Amino acid sequence: MRLVMIGLGRMGGNMARRLLQAGHEIVAYDRDEGAVAKLAEAGAIAATSLEDARGKAGSPAIWWVMLPHGEITDTTITAIAEHGAAGDIVIDGGNSFYKDDIRHARALADKDMHFVDVGTSGGVWGLERGYCMMIGGPDEVVRRLDPIFAALAPGAGTIPRTAGRDGNDTVDPRAEKGYIHAGPAGAGHFVKMVHNGIEYGLMQAYAEGFDVLKGKASDHLPEGERYDLNLADIAEVWRRGSVISSWLLDLSAQALAKDAHLDGFSGNVADSGEGQWTIEAAMEEAVPVNVLTTALFARYRSRVEHTFGEKVLSAMRFGFGGHVEMPQ
Amino acid sequence: MRLVMIGLGRMGGNMARRLLQAGHEIVAYDRDEGAVAKLAEAGAIAATSLEDARGKAGSPAIWWVMLPHGEITDTTITAIAEHGAAGDIVIDGGNSFYKDDIRHARALADKDMHFVDVGTSGGVWGLERGYCMMIGGPDEVVRRLDPIFAALAPGAGTIPRTAGRDGNDTVDPRAEKGYIHAGPAGAGHFVKMVHNGIEYGLMQAYAEGFDVLKGKASDHLPEGERYDLNLADIAEVWRRGSVISSWLLDLSAQALAKDAHLDGFSGNVADSGEGQWTIEAAMEEAVPVNVLTTALFARYRSRVEHTFGEKVLSAMRFGFGGHVEMPQ
Amino acid sequence: MRLVMIGLGRMGGNMARRLLQAGHEIVAYDRDEGAVAKLAEAGAIAATSLEDARGKAGSPAIWWVMLPHGEITDTTITAIAEHGAAGDIVIDGGNSFYKDDIRHARALADKDMHFVDVGTSGGVWGLERGYCMMIGGPDEVVRRLDPIFAALAPGAGTIPRTAGRDGNDTVDPRAEKGYIHAGPAGAGHFVKMVHNGIEYGLMQAYAEGFDVLKGKASDHLPEGERYDLNLADIAEVWRRGSVISSWLLDLSAQALAKDAHLDGFSGNVADSGEGQWTIEAAMEEAVPVNVLTTALFARYRSRVEHTFGEKVLSAMRFGFGGHVEMPQ
Amino acid sequence: MRLVMIGLGRMGGNMARRLLQAGHEIVAYDRDEGAVAKLAEAGAIAATSLEDARGKAGSPAIWWVMLPHGEITDTTITAIAEHGAAGDIVIDGGNSFYKDDIRHARALADKDMHFVDVGTSGGVWGLERGYCMMIGGPDEVVRRLDPIFAALAPGAGTIPRTAGRDGNDTVDPRAEKGYIHAGPAGAGHFVKMVHNGIEYGLMQAYAEGFDVLKGKASDHLPEGERYDLNLADIAEVWRRGSVISSWLLDLSAQALAKDAHLDGFSGNVADSGEGQWTIEAAMEEAVPVNVLTTALFARYRSRVEHTFGEKVLSAMRFGFGGHVEMPQ
């Protein structure tokens, strides 16, 4: 199939490459001409503008927008809606908020265009491993795009099958190839959002565990109760037959094998929005999500030297006990 | 009554003064001779050693130990047990762990001596306001010491009575004067321990709230959604008719009135053990105490620049996404 | 001053009464005619409709809207905007979301009308104790309404003054009477929102503490480490000289004095929106609010028999360990 | 090698089988004679008592104790110490508290016996997949037991190697085969304890995420913002190329494929001690572990209908607002 890829950053560029390798045709556009040129070398049709891309897109055109979430995605989809034709399909493959998807789907439907949202996981490894995709949109349109999704997805590969799926007509075989049609507009990004919420929680669980292991060497503990543990070996052994083996643990094992002190890492941990949206969604549902929330807040806290609240605590302690908190 | 006060620091010294003012006799001992001399000026009988105190204590002797919890309290109680006589009463008025009380009570009972544990709240304000006391020990002994507790306690004062206490034979009138006999050995310190656990939670609730108020002026928020709020006035107004009025809020209001930026406070917040013991007690009971725990952990976090766990997070993010966390 | 009170429920009715007692004139309107009649008996001018109220309001009219937040407040303010005249003042005294205030203020400004938002605390006790008020809006308009606010507020009363306010020109004397002008439109409700966020945290801190006290009698603990504590007396004694004395503790002491088992209370704890908004505001600011969040989530959890997540945990445990979780 | 296996439950029995399959000799003892008989059929030497086992153990004897942690493990190790001879090795392969290990090691050292602690992960899958082992004890003894550990461990298998281990002399090659020598006595169980702490956190992160997905179908949400998501397919797709793939997710996918409603599971989630010990260890180190703690507390909460604290909240809300919480 022919598909216009808009946004050739780390994610969009690699996805376009994987599609080219699978025999699809890519019309490539990015504001960065160098990125377009590089992809043209890999076999893509270069476009110099959205209008140019429109001309080269074929009909109906399939637009895959792969841009940072927020304003830039919004204005791009609006621009496509203006330039596009009835029957065109616009795919938002970025990390957009699912309520924006619902809005975009309605706006495009007014012009008889279709909207599909795709949440993808796999990070920089996707080109090689394939992309795990969670898709929202009209059933018929998602089915029409199946060759695209099948090419981007990891496929069944060597991962053992899950017991209980064979002959089970409540499940969808596409899930085993690495993509699902989650529901109507927004459902793809919603599932991806929760995925990231979970990701934060998992990461924080490992982080806290390694923190306790590391802290066990502290001079403040009684002698005879200290251990100077080899974190690289611990991460490695947990990969092998333990209940907590995971891909995130694999990555931790790699980092710790390189430098068990992780000296090169700042510890100022960013968050990308999905964690926050997951908490908001949970609150709309009145679902308690203590782990997901505390994982997000640990990131907030990591990025400041002190909160003002901590000074309030010091001030109160001085007030009732005359305690003076010493800078450390 | 005559009572030996051992430990004349901020707490012990002031309690001795309050007892003297009420007409009790105090035999005063501290390793710091200056502290003893100062209290002698206030009317106390100076003692130069435990042995000396023993001679001046009368019979049966009443020992009030007011020392930092841990080893020093332990060795002092052991020494008194050696020097003391059957019928003596040893009161631990410090912040000891209640399981240590149970142990002390058993050891003293072997010598026909009595043990009483007293948890006190009121901080540096106790001399003036009186001390709120939570007492553990044998009923008969606690009753015998009543003149001591009545003198130390705030008394009913002007605090409005609680509806539902009049003619209620399930409650104890001593509570309205500011002290209770909570139960057998350890019960006093147990109740005081939970008191401090709650204290941490309350403080953190206010701290977080002020943090949100302060953060509302941040440049990162959309213009038109920022407020530059007067925290001193907010703390003040909440003292007056709001649901969240409290003594801790009074102290916050004072600190914020002096300097709304709290620039003089480090924000490295100490904890004194009771918070941790409360969590341990809750876990023994399988009671979820999320607020009390998170309040304690906020203090731990306040005292370090970064946790190792945060570096683990940065390392994972680099691993799956190529993200580089920038120092800020 | 003359003021139209729209909404004569528990809050609006009592505020109208307090204003009447202070000599103000109240035009009273509610969809419930009985409520209007009752207030007329107390001296108010009855209105049968918004239009009717308009006629009786004087000019410029002052409208105090005291309705449940959400749609009903929104449509009422819109209706007043239609019926009102330039120069009119609309006060939203309910629990509205501060971003709605910003929107309302803009819509009314288009008609040269003024908008003021007032967050109030004090609950059912306000009629007697006075209302603690946090006010947002244009400075000149808030000053013009001062007689209203002064009448509703508790006034300085017998609450001790906060050290550091005398001669301090960074603070506002109105705070000591129980109301503040927090900032422009929305600032009043924003401060009230955070107030409620804190309230949830404080309540949960006490709740967890009492839970630990109660649980200490459990049969699961080793004999000799159990205490059967008198919670009514503990709550009472903490009111008297302890660091954690507060109005919420006073209320707890009352409830526990009536029935230490609290058998009449369901424990399905509602939340009113402000807690959630506080978390959202904190996330917009990237401020960690672990205590406020966990307090809100405890309420969510209290309202269901089991979360689905708990079944997921049971399922995983069965998966890796063959563990069967027994219903209890 | 010849080894006495004491305790032939699910874990001990399967480990003995795996050792027999690898050519080791097993003297098998359990209070349950049927368990002994079954293992004898699989090739083990049956023992009818500890004394009998002693006679058949060879010299020096190697004792592997595989019993529930606590009293039974304690008395068994004490009994072995009495019956054993200098040079014997006692291995505690259960889930003991690491401070008990330190105590056991000292007691055995007094009789010139050796103590080794082994934390194992892998659950009921270990017989087939091999056991992930974390070992504490004297270096020389752990090396002598290597054939045992190598037979129990999964071995390198097909799991991809971790980059950065080749030629890295700070890491131990045993980790890649699924076992590590973590440090002196107790270090094995300490690492296993933290492993389980992490496990609780990971499980809770998934549980909360699935809860949010499930809740998105709720009638309380605005129409047009609800999704009826297929949780079995979502779990499946996340196994394939996503950042959050893990063995725990594999298990969730299996459970959800069988029944997406998980109706057969009670949701009363047990905990086995290690979660609590991890929190205690973290508090001794002053390391904040919010995720691990909140995961444990979610299990406590899952096992009761209501906490007393929730009734306290209801009582306070009634006190200040007249709110009556309805049973649901």
From TrEMBL, chains A, B, C, D:
Pathway assigned to this chain's UniProt record: Carbohydrate degradation; pentose phosphate pathway
Keywords of this entry: Gluconate utilization, Oxidoreductase
One Pfam family hit: NAD_binding_2
6-phosphogluconate dehydrogenase C-terminal domain location: 188-327
Recorded GO MF terms: NADP binding; phosphogluconate dehydrogenase (decarboxylating) activity
Gene Ontology BP, a term: D-gluconate metabolic process
Similarity remark: Belongs to the 6-phosphogluconate dehydrogenase family.
Name of the molecule in the record: 6-phosphogluconate dehydrogenase (Decarboxylating)
